[in-house]
Amino acid sequence: MPKAFQCATIKVPLDYSRPKGKKLGLAISRLKTSTKSERRGVLLINPGGPGGTGVDMPQLLASQLPKSVKRKYDLVGFDPRGVGQSSPVGCGLTDQEQDWERAYKPETFAKDVKWARTFAEKCHTKQGDKLRHISTRNTARDMDVIRAVLGEKKISYLGYSYGTYLGAVYTQMFPKRSDRFVLDSAIDPARIWRGMIQVWAEGSEPAFTRWTEWTAERNATYKLGNTPQAVRKTFYDLIAQADREPIDLGDGSWLTGDDIRSGGRAVFFSVRDAAEMVVELKKAAEGRRPSGDRETRTPTPLPPSFGRAVPGDNGTAAFWTVLCADTRNWPRVPEQYRKDAIRDNARYPLYGDFASNIMPCAFWKKNGSEPATRISNKVGALILQNEWDSQTPLTSAQGLRRVMKGAKMVTVAGGVGHGIYGFSKSCADKTATAYLTTGKLPAKDVTCKAAPERESSGANPLPLPTPRGIPGLAGGF
């Protein structure tokens, strides 16, 4: 650990309307710049989530960000309230209860309703009134406390995925304290939060269609069909087979059709990865052992930076606590979820019923302490977005751009993957670095081309889905 890396815990109000009331501990970290003469201020970082721990982000990005940026800023990380080492929430959920990606089926819907109700009841039993205050607005207020504690008049910010919404909320609440904000892989504020999960279904269909076209052109390599229609049939035949009888992967695990749909959804944004996945599934379905060693996806342990115990279900509990506290637009009647799941399964067959099925917020006992934040401002910011992003599709970033009228947006045409700056060599990097170091935004929105080889996300050489029920697999933002 570098000597310049510092950790601390500060106290913030649980309820900002009662500043002298109960306090939460907020874990923060800082990696100071070594060039004081060039220092501009602090760059707060949020990795996404909600529920993502951020205290280790300065160390992670220290090797990824350009030197010119690190000379300008102290890198500051923090675990948002309720997450990791910042007064973490936990609901005592079992591994099966944490599995919230559930396909709609008439015969299991009552069981899913019972699961959602149990999830909500367990959280309220464990956490009580605290849940109402674990929200994005309060996390933005916490960021402003961090600013004040560090003695800064303004903050600059780098937020990924959910962190783009957190950053947008901060600019809305504290516009005069917002300096240079980079919002990478963006959330549409108009669709928090049920709509953002439904975006996964909407975005997966054009990605799937693109994949069928790409794969059909390479039938000599993959042998999945010589037309897009034939490739599509190959895939959905595998789904039907797995629905009848789970596919044996040869390592003691089996995949149902629902496993393949939920686990494969994000893979189709990376056409080469998806083609390799379906080839291996086809082998397994034919009784042939898949090639190589399948990656086992297990939850990433929370970093032990502050040496305090964290509930095992913290990531899932924090995710849903924020999603339920931030907005009051979750339907309260299970029948609405049933109707929507049936509708969206027809519209978006890959993932539509998962996205619109019953969720814990249907039974959350108390709304958040405030209504959702309406984003509409002219604060300067830079939005970065890949064209083919599985978690925050391009339409999502365009939604944020519409309401942040002072922002500019860089779209990476053909870009694949979730997260750009500091994690991939992207044509957007130069613009982001220039903005952070000089403060100059492009005169207008920019579209640049991804490198041709970015047909694969590079995340997993053999991206087979994993059987459902393993905690931590359901993606966040």
Automatic annotation (TrEMBL):
Region (Disordered), start-end ranges: 284-309, 450-477
Organism: Streptomyces capitiformicae
Protein name in UniProt: Alpha/beta hydrolase
Domain Peptidase S33 tripeptidyl aminopeptidase-like C-terminal: 349-448
Protein family according to the UniProt entry: Belongs to the peptidase S33 family.
Basic and acidic residues bias: start-end ranges: 284-297
Xref: InterPro entries: AB_hydrolase_1, AB_hydrolase_fold, Pept_S33_TAP-like_C, Serine_prot/Carboxylest_S33
Residues making up the signal peptide according to the UniProt record: none
Domain spans labelled AB hydrolase-1: 42-227
Pfam families tied to this protein: Abhydrolase_1 (PF00561), Abhydrolase_4 (PF08386)
Molecular function per GO: hydrolase activity
Assigned keywords, A-Z: Hydrolase, Signal
